[in-house]
Amino acid sequence: ARALAEAEGVPLAPGTGLLNDADAAIEAAARIGYPVMLKATAGGGGIGMRVCTDESAVREGFATVARLGAGNFGDAGLFLERFVPRARHVEVQIFGDGTGRVVSLGERDCSLQRRNQKVVEEAPAPDLPPQIRTALIDAALRLGAAARYRSAGTVEFLYDAERQDWFFLEVNTRLQVEHGVTEEVTGIDLVEWMIRGAAADYAFLDTPVPAPRGWAIQARLYAEDPAVDFRPAAGTLTQVSFPADARVESWVEGGTRVSPFYDPMIAKLIVHGADRAAAVAKLQVALDATRLAGIETNLRWLRDVARSEDLVSGDVSTRSLDRVVHRPRSISVQASGTLTTVQDFPGRVGLWDVGVPPSGPMDSRSFRLGNALLGNDAAAAGLEITATGPTLAFNTD
Fold first, then answer.
1. Claim: this prediction has a pTM higher than 0.85
2. CA gap 274, 185 in Å, rounded
3. CA distance 382 to 363
4. If pLDDT is split at 50, 70 and 90, which confidence band does 43 have?
């Protein structure tokens, strides 16, 4: 892809082709200048990327990134490119018929990332100068036409807002997770287009793509725990509820067991508004109305993201999420313990005669007072723990 971009005159971030070994990577990094990014050529989803600030980091990271590429994508190839600390990730959705005819469905901004994994995406891209938008779309169309691209694809760019400069990153030759925001602003069903194209029906390309209408934003819900450095969470979801006025794409419901063996994304929540301010407000409301219980998720963190200064203003970058202030409201089990029971008041009474023992909290008065302090119903269930019970850490005041 980089070779094709260079042949078509599309600007490239200073970088390399595929590298044979760590020594070649170190030599290239010295030529490009630090910091640099080691990237798996077949990578995606933030996997197979590492920022290196010196020679030792390149040497150490080379084997790691190659291993990640081979393990996750079956390809150990990797390359190197300059790393822009405060960059924006802007991508253009294209669709081609395989003969050189390619159309653009506009751009998306995917700058809000954590560990190079997209978290919030939107269309169109906010505060993008018109000349930059035109240049990115033109470059994407040139690349697609030169490759005789067929079906849906995404041409990704790195935009340096401070320098008003941009570079080609890569082409994702598949349907992106964030394609829904493009569908929302264009009214086009990209999956339908792909199915029709697979049947050699490209008549829809004869009709001009409509101009974007309104604004769409997507938030990705992950089964991971923000309180412990976003460690993946696994277990059974006991409650799943999404707002009816948002587009939700998910595979989970109450009772679904989330496995530790796959990507932790459990849902995509997409909203559409007349303008960006309306879309941001709808995102905040939709996240507030979402309920996920049973395992830890990034839902509460996303609520803070949706109200962060960078997202609300549209002044986003790939470092924006590093500045989000989030205080988890959760309890972590530091050590397990015996003799912990789930009780409610008054419990089971009057059943001893038929073999079922009576039950209930040992200290029913304190139990009910605790519920009263929390605003719970007096009969709400709770944990009753003895002195030899678990060690718990409360992640909030």
1. no
2. 10
3. 12
4. confident
